[in-house]
Write a structure and sequence with these properties.
443 residues; Cathepsin D, subunit A, domain 1; Pdz3 Domain; mainly beta; 50% strand; 6-stranded mixed barrel; single chain; 3 domains
Length: 443
């Protein structure tokens, strides 16, 4: 792996003379950008001071944050000072760099004076969990300067000049209020709890969360009886744990999502966040991807339309394991070449002889390890351990699949038997277990 080189530059330009917002070329009213949808997260191609990177589009973040620079030969960042960042998680605030006047380009949209935060701690790295390089997160500045049309179905992002976008009437669409407070967007809704209790909600719209719905416990919102303790994800300040459950339903506008997957994070993870904005929780990517949507921050609206994901089942980690990339490993595969020889004689069309040569091919492939395991889960009870290297799932070699495809194989459906071929202490072994609905284990 090549060493990281950061160039810290102080440009001798008057700051007031540089545009501090994203702009499109004069001849364009909108820009179309294709994105990847990985683990319910929108991954966009972003150019930072000439370096081509991949960022998560995170509507819950106020300024871009750059991390995981190990794959880059070099990147220039300008006008640098030291700061401290508070984020989600139970760890301490992290030290970072604040940088001004950086050139950001998203397709044809460009900002020549983008403020940027840089985290130098290489442990703050989401790439192993997603299976592709992720270099940072960006949010508010994009939503501030454009009307943002997100088509989750086609995986296409459109950035419109605010004055050029026309809201076309459509009976299948609904326009609801969007409250933008301190650079974060909120929507109102309702949650239906046990005993059909209906509770009003104020929810952060958080496209940077891969989960479905997060709710904060309160006098009016209690954790359902059927739940289990789980790892909920990672924030800048560390891991987030809480309780996993489901609610009878949630309502956003006139849209109702039945049996919505819901998490109740331990509130200790929010200690470093000074102001939660009076919200009850947040809407993450596993709910948001069920709509195609148009964000209009200036107009204070969000337009929702059901898409093909709307009625898809929510994904639960029934195996109880987390996996990630952990470098590369060599594998050997036997390959057979077939040669054909023909021997002709005067009385026949010819005799055919097939010769087989067996060779060994060495390949360098990603190594997939168990990075976490839930107590009481089927995988834990079957003897799987953190650090085990997964070689195959039900006879399928994992190096042929993307990380999210492997997670699907591990959690396909209730009652399915999962057979893992793993490596532990330089020895191969097989572990088998059956996927269970964790809610059924609670009275």
């Amino acid at each position: 792996m090549r060493a990281l080189i950061l160039f810290f530059a102080v440009l001798m330009l008057p700051f007031s003379g540089v545009a501090q917002q994203y702009e499109l070329p004069k001849h364009k009213n909108y820009e179309k950008v294709k994105f990847q949808l990985i683990n319910n997260l929108i991954i966009i191609p972003l150019e930072v001071n000439g370096s081509k990177l991949s960022f998560i589009l995170d509507s819950g973040v106020s300024k871009p944050i750059l991390f995981n620079l190990a794959e880059q030969d070099s990147i220039q960042i300008n006008k640098v000072s030291e700061i401290t960042i508070n984020g989600l998680g139970s760890g301490e605030p992290i030290k970072a760099l604040s940088s001004k006047e950086n050139r950001f380009r998203l397709g044809a949209a460009q900002n020549n004076a983008q403020r940027l935060y840089v985290v130098l701690d290489r442990d703050k790295n989401f790439s192993p969990n997603l299976g592709i390089p992720i270099h940072g997160i960006i949010g508010y500045d994009i939503f501030r300067d454009f009307i943002v049309d997100i088509n989750y179905s086609k995986k296409v992002l459109r950035l419109y000049r605010p004055g050029s976008y026309e809201h076309k009437p459509d009976k299948k669409k609904e326009v609801i209020p969007l409250h933008v407070i301190n650079k974060k967007a909120y929507v109102d809704g309702f949650v239906f709890l046990e005993n059909k209790k209906k509770v009003p909600l104020k929810l952060l719209v958080d496209s940077g969360s891969s989960d479905a719905l997060w709710l904060f416990e309160s006098d009016s919102i209690a954790v359902p009886n059927k739940h289990y303790d789980d790892f909920l994800g990672s924030g800048l300040n560390g891991s987030v744990f809480g309780k996993r459950s489901m609610v009878k339903g949630i309502q956003i506008g006139n849209f109702f999502l039945k049996d919505a997957k819901t998490s109740f994070p331990d509130m200790v993870h929010f200690d470093q966040i000074m102001n939660l904005g009076g919200r009850n929780g947040s809407l993450g990517g596993e709910v948001l991807k069920r709509f195609n949507m148009v964000f209009d921050y200036r107009g204070g609206t969000i337009t929702l339309k059901k898409n093909s994901n709307f009625n898809k089942a929510y994904q639960y980690n029934m195996s109880g394991i987390e996996i990630q990339h952990d470098g590369l490993r060599y594998i050997s595969e036997r390959i057979t070449n077939r040669k054909r020889q023909e021997e002709e004689d005067s009385e026949s069309f010819g005799n055919v002889q097939l010769l087989f040569e067996t060779q060994t091919r060495l390949s360098l492939v990603p190594e997939i390890i168990v990075s976490g395991i839930r107590a009481g889960s089927p995988a834990k009870d079957a003897g799987l351990q953190e650090g085990d290297v997964i070689l195959a799932v039900n006879g399928k070699k994992v190096h042929s699949y993307k990380l999210q495809e492997i997670m699907f194989m591990l959690n396909e459906r209730e009652g399915k038997r999962v057979r893992l071929l793993i490596e532990r202490a330089n020895s191969d072994m097989t572990i088998t277990y059956e996927l269970k609905n964790m809610f059924k284990e609670k009275p």
